[in-house]
Amino acid sequence: MPADNQPTPSIKRDRPWLIRTYSGHSTAKVSNALYRTNLARGQTGLSIAFDLPTQTGYDSDHPLARGEVGKVGVPVSHLGDMLTLLDGIPLDRMNTSMTINAPAAWLLALYIAVAEKQGVARAKLQGTTQNDIIKEYLSRGTYVFPPEPSLRLTSDTIAFTVREVPKWNPMNVCSYHLQEAGATPMQELAYALADAIAVLDTVKARGQVTSEEFPQVVGRISFFCNAGVRFVTELCKMRAFAELWDELTRERYGVTDPKMRLFRYGVQVNSLGLTEQQPENNVYRILLEMLAVVLSKNARARSVQLPAWNEALGLPRPWDQQWSLRLQQIVAHETDLLEFGDIFDGSTEIERKVTELKAETRAELARIDDMGGAIAAVEAGYMKQRLVESNLKRIAAIESGAQTVIGVNAFTEGEPSPLSAGEAAIQTVDAAVEREQIEQLNAWRAQRDARQADAALVALRDAAKEGRNIMEPSIACAHAGVTTGEWGQALREIFGEYRAPTGVGRAAGAGSDRLEPVRREVERVSRKLGRRLKMLVGKPGLDGHSNGAEQIAVRARDCGMEVVYEGIRLTPARIVNAALEEGVHVVGLSILSGSHVPLVGEVMEGMRSSGIADVPVVVGGIIPPEDAAVLLKSGVARVYTPKDFDITAIMRDIVTVVDGAGQKAA
Q1: Which comes out higher in pLDDT, residue 427 or 657?
Q2: CATH class of segment(s) 18-400
Q3: So which cofactors does this thing need (predicted)?
Q4: What is the pLDDT of residues 169-216, one digit of tens each?
Q5: Could you tell me which of 422, 410, 424, 423 has the C-alpha nearest to residue 278?
Q6: Set 545, 558, 596, 627: catalytic member
Q7: What is the pLDDT of residues 361-404, one digit of tens each?
Q8: Alpha-helix runs per DSSP H in 252-381
Q9: Which whole-number Å values give the CA distances from 406 to 161, 277, 373, in the listed order?
Q10: Catalytic residue among 22, 58, 111, 498
């Protein structure tokens, strides 16, 4: 008999989930080396992070791409980049997840073109394109087109893959970013399911899929979820997800095959809760969050990717990613987790919480349905407003101490972390990467057959105008050497662009007695200024993570300031123009993509040229200490990072900055 701490040879273990790390930066060549290294270390699937220009359908030389190239992912501007990115990786044996939404059809087209270059049949390809545009309007912000044509593009990829690439997941409904935007477990359930309903209804309405094929479509829809540190609640959320999806697909869509109704999901655990303070504690948070999605066999994730412990500080190094990879491997291979059935079946506590979450979710889904569905709720600003309000409550709870975060608002005294010391504590992207990428892009354009590329773009536009499926024309564009920006611009010309509601205007602020002293200060300084203190909150560049900017805008309003906030994806010139026209007293810039130094510099140079250099600038984001020093030396009045969790204290500080600037000007 083996000892209890030894594996039993006769017990059959379940196969582990796909083990991934979400990665990519700098260039396709650098990222390819990283992928090969991670695969050699035991990673079992690829998860590709694309940079913001690629995610928003721009080439690396577009004005909005300045400072963003290669920062939060890999730039892929054409087939040559994709060939380099996947060099030496056999696509017939690889399961690849691509986090891409508005241009998902294009990146899938490039992936298929690479496979065809490798001699791999489309039918052998396995993987996922995220392709969830609705949550982009609510959270991540990398949308391009209005909702209706965006859903059409998603529907086109689904209809194409069900026949041509049947092992591919053409969409994963992404509730991950909903939680990052502040969603409660109920909101994550309800908004993700409302999103899936909108997509499946669009697929049916488009008529490209037969009724016989439709269950296959349902069976290929996957989800990409989040799990926070309250792991019992999160575990119950995942069980509720599985039961609600089974119910929805059976009752609404009449899918009779239980296999087609399975809730299939991958997960990256919560990054929102990672702390800059005592960052080594994040390792424990990540482990607990992972348990929420692997402990319950009946609701176990199909794939897991974990953030690195230091992602609140900046881009993780290969060693940091290896540490996250080893955590997964220890749970999968050293523990006995995979030797048992579902250890929560029959638990009255688990069942009670699952039942509660399901009831709350059904009620919220009914509200959204009464509004006309997810798209109507997006366009009305309802879901975005609810997310902003939930995030306000979360932050207020941390500020007040009602929600404990170790190292942040409790047990804050501690030793400095040797893991995060020194300039090499995080990965940095060389500024020369952008120049090199643009040079290679120009060389690509120069060597291709321009007439063939132009003809492919004409065919793409025609398909878009005529309502035909755009996948085959997109694959033809890939082979013809068309670039990401050209593909994006061709469809922008047909579909137009879109700016989603910010949710800030009608969001109910979190009332607090702590605001009263700040309100009195705002009144005092406003009287000195001769009018209401006015703040511009701006997001230069392509960073769509607007949560922080939204919270600052709402709190500034609640403190009595007049606030100008136009949402995401603004050029530095537009921010400067708004500051000039609105006559603001302070400019607050929010940048989380790592491009803070060039973008802030461009804004400040524009302000100097426009004669408003006396208006103070404050900056917030994931900003390493060395970069903070650079910004302060350049004239930035304040730099706020994730350690500055007390937004009311930030407001008090901003009022002090404006008061000091006014006295200096006088």
Answers
A1: 657
A2: alpha beta
A3: adenosylcob(III)alamin
A4: 999 999 999 999 999 999 999 999 999 999 999 999 999 999 999 999
A5: 410
A6: 545
A7: 999 999 999 999 999 999 999 999 999 899 989 999 999 999 99
A8: 282-294, 318-329, 348-371, 374-379
A9: 46, 9, 40
A10: 22
Q: What is d(CA 488, CA 147) in angstroms, rounded to the nearest whole number?
A: 16
Mean residue pLDDT of the chain comes to 92
From the list 107, 164, 172, 71, the residue with the least C-alpha distance to 483 is 107
In the chain, list all ranges with CATH 3.20.20.240. 18-400
Please indicate whether residue 143 is annotated as part of the active site: no
User: Number of helices and strands (H, E) in the chain?
Assistant: 25, 15
Whether 176 is a known active-site residue: answer yes
**Dihedral (Cα; 595, 597, 598, 600), 10-degree rounding:** 100
**In the chain, which segments carry CATH 3.40.50.280?**
514-665
d(CA 266, CA 305): 8
Write out pLDDT tens, residues 429-481. Answer: 788 899 999 999 999 999 999 999 999 999 999 999 999 999 999 999 999 99
> Cα separations (Å) of 449 from 446, 454, 470, 480?
8, 9, 22, 7
Element (H, E) at 267: strand 265-268
What is the token pair recorded at 525? 């300084």
Q: Which one from 543, 565, 585, 596 is the annotated catalytic residue?
A: 543
Measured CA to CA, the distance from residue 521 to residue 656 in angstroms comes to 9
C-alpha to C-alpha distances, 69 to 435, 598, 608, nearest whole angstrom: 9, 12, 26
Residues in the chain: 666
Domain at 514-665: CATH code: 3.40.50.280
Active-site choice (58, 111, 176, 640): 176
The reported pTM is 0.90
What tokens appear for 519 in the block? 């309100």
As a whole number of Å, the end-to-end CA separation of the chain is: 86
Bigger pLDDT: 314 vs 633: 633
Hey, is 25 helix, strand or coil? coil
Given the residues 539, 558, 565, 596, the one annotated as active site: 539
* β-pair type (171-174, 168-169): unpaired
The DSSP letter of residue 557 is H
| Cα dist from 121 to 92, 107, 217, 480, whole Å | 8, 17, 20, 19
Catalytic residue among 177, 534, 585, 596: 177
d(CA 353, CA 277): 32
Residue 511 burial (C-beta neighbours within 10 Å; 0-12, 13-18, 19+): exposed
- Tell me, letter by letter, the H, E, C secondary structure of 27-42: CHHHHHHHHHHHHHCC
- State the maximum Cα–Cα separation within the chain, in Å, rounded to a whole number: 86
Q: How many CB atoms lie within 10 A of CB 462?
A: 13
Using the predicted structure, report yes or no on whether residue 505 has a pLDDT greater than 80: no
137 labelled catalytic: no
The closest alpha carbon to 539, from 589, 579, 581, 586, belongs to: 589
Q: Is 22 a catalytic residue?
A: yes
Q: Does the annotation mark 545 as catalytic?
A: yes
Q: Are 18 and 302 in contact (CB under 8 A)?
A: yes
User: Residue 388 corresponds to which tokens in the numbers above?
Assistant: 């902003």
